[in-house]
Design a protein that fits this description.
CATH topology of one domain: Jelly Rolls
Number of helices: 5
Structural class: alpha+beta
CATH class of one domain: Mainly Beta
Number of strands: 10
Helix content: 40-55%
């Protein structure tokens, strides 16, 4: 995933970023570091303070809450969106299921970008609102 355009293409599929233009996605992509992780690497633990969001570029991750597996994600899947917006306790533990390549962005850098671009901030808040609506709808069923 060395090419900048492939990074932009990948994060374009993340619901939090759905309202961003191609140029705005490129600005977010510049903030993201690529990390290679082995199988069994814990990205976050439920209850720990969160400051980063991860996007799976290659590989798979398992998501557990209260010791029970609730989901798994592959390429294009994102975890930690809430921590990116507002630092706070993680609501799940996430572990790599196979060797994985992830994109990671931290709270501080992301908020600096949103401070520089009110348009990006508004579009991110719209993406967050859509995610909350989806979660709320899922909970109702």
């Amino acid at each position: 995933m060395a090419a900048h355009d492939s990074k932009v293409d990948l994060i374009a599929s993340v619901p939090l970023f759905e309202g961003l233009s191609r140029g705005e996605l490129a600005q977010v992509a510049q903030l993201m570091d690529e990390v290679d992780l082995p199988v069994g690497q814990v990205l976050m633990r439920q209850g720990d303070l969160g400051r980063q969001m991860f996007v799976v570029a290659q590989g798979r991750v398992a998501i557990e809450r209260d010791g029970q597996k609730i989901d798994e994600l592959g390429p294009g899947g994102a975890v930690g969106e809430m921590a990116l917006i507002s630092e706070g306790p993680r609501n799940a533990t996430v572990t790599t299921m196979e060797p994985s390549v992830l994109l990671v962005v931290d709270h501080r850098g992301f908020h600096s970008l949103m401070d520089l671009s009110p348009t990006i901030r508004l579009r991110i808040m719209g993406g967050l609102a859509n995610k909350i609506r989806t979660l709320d709808t899922d909970a109702a069923h």
